[in-house]
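At this stage, I put together a protein sequence along with its fold in token form, as given directly below:
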Amino acid sequence: MPTYWTKTLIPTLRQVPAEAEVPSHQLMLRAGYLRKLSAGVYDYLPLGWRSLRKAMQIVREEMDAIGAAEVFLPAMQPIELWERTGRRIAYGQNLFVVKDRHGREHALGPTHEEVITELVSAYIESYKDLPKVLYQIQTKFRDEFRPRFGVLRSREFQMKDAYSFHLNLDGPPGSGSLSETYDAMHGAYCKIFQRCGIPYMVVEAESGPIGGSASHEFMCPSPTGEDVILQNDAGYAANVEKCETGKRTFDINAAPTGGLQEIYTPDCKSIDDLCAQWKEFAGGGKLKPENTLKTRVYEIRVYKRTGDDWAIWIAVVRGDREVNDGKVRHHIEQQYKHNIDVLRVEVAPISDERAQDLGIPLGFIGPHFVGSVTEPKLQARIWNIFDYEAANGGFWVTGGNRVNYHVRHYCMRREFGWNDHDGPITCDILNLIHHTQITDIRNAVEGDPAPEDRGGGTLKVTKGIEIGHIFKLGYKYTEALEVTVVNENNEPVKPMMGCYGIGVNRILASAIENEQGHDDNGIIWPRALAPFDVLLVPIKYDGQVKDVTDNLAAEMEAAGTDVLIDDRDERPGVKFKDADLIGVPLRVTIGEKGLSEGMVEVKSRNGRINEKVAPDSAAARIAQLLASL
């Protein structure tokens, strides 16, 4: 049975809501798909819910096609699970935590790794029970500090999350390895986004604990996207957290630009504050961020068979660049890779409390901090890691290694005590004598060289919306929750995991945000996501026009076409504007004048179809046209 406009709820708006910043947010509100209930929380109205269900169904069909089994897990999760994995602290204030009447705390799940792992531990005992691939489509919660962009960054959202459990990382076809399931998920995701009719690209993302190319994001290119993607002409693409750069030159033997001068810079912990007030502090002149060195301090915990250890690493980049935590972590982990005594390494930015205990003045640290440390045991634990640009010569301002002070004319060669040495400083000397290494540790930017082994050339920046993410989790959760199965030798081993997410709400927003998804008049849906296939617009819904409209609707519905009839008593101009606004793929206009000429008018929302067809053959022709969309 067709749906009638007057019997459903489609509250269209003429004006753009003040809080809506991007096209998808504006148009989903104006076209009556959504209504804001509170910050980051939305009602899905009939049109929006129909489109969301269509996206869910495509996801569900492709998950089922690769043998994943659907479950439905609680949104409210015992906080103890999050504490056991350490994610209560790691997730921070983004985690919704509620108390029941007995004072017990629960997390409103933004994701379900803990819950699914606990579930599997209750039933999976042997390698014979593996692999297992489970998924759900569930409401998730994230306490966003600043919800924005409608359903692109909301506090409550729909997500498809899948999890897989395996005995091995790799193996022959049919072995049930993690890599085999990962590849199957990759293929399923491509099919999902192809079927949804939205453009997408697959980019390398920050790897999981297994390393290698163990993580990929699926991005919809969009000028309003919050994610930065870098790519070259050879097909290499990665998000900004993962993207590597090619070889960049540097000169660690450059002469100083002047004597090292200490400048009093009260309360200037940030580069922006320092540059804004430099003229006042330095007695004149301007300071640009690219002439400063930015530092980020990390504490390293090394867990060994023979006893645990720790170290401090100071990452140094040019002031107008950003330290890449993933690159720093990966580089540090590689230093311990071949030490069989090391069980695991944890790398994290140092806390304010720990820095204070060690006498590290955060916000005022310079690369020469190790030279100011008088405690030998601490001095031996401090390492520097420079990005290439930060190791160059030139005029530098950096932290003065005491609170409220910076220095200018910093020079690596001089500050490391080699200014009077005849020979050059080499990277080997820096590493062995000064605990200093030079490598790529910053976010890539447009114009950087692309890696030679990825085709070289120059990196270009585009923006995108993340709509899917797959990665290899390894043992993170099975280890934390002490999950084991017995292997072929009847020995207890921990299974490894994969995790695979799709933001279902973001599929709808991405379909609108891309260049083909909207125009000045409204939404342009791909057929797969449109709430209806066809909108019938009778100029006046009575008499012969009503009869033809109803008969055509019944014929199309019987053939499986979703039909909406605009039966409102409104002017044609109002109906046409609303038709463009809600974005249904085909609009069929039926009026007395057209019927007197033996035709109805068929137009596609994307502007590629404009035909006049006889009422008797309209259903068949519309079916053909829909198949071409």
Summary: The chain has a mean pLDDT of 94. Residues 46-65 form the longest helix (20 residues). The longest strand covers residues 460-474. The CA atoms of residues 356 and 563 lie 67 Å apart.
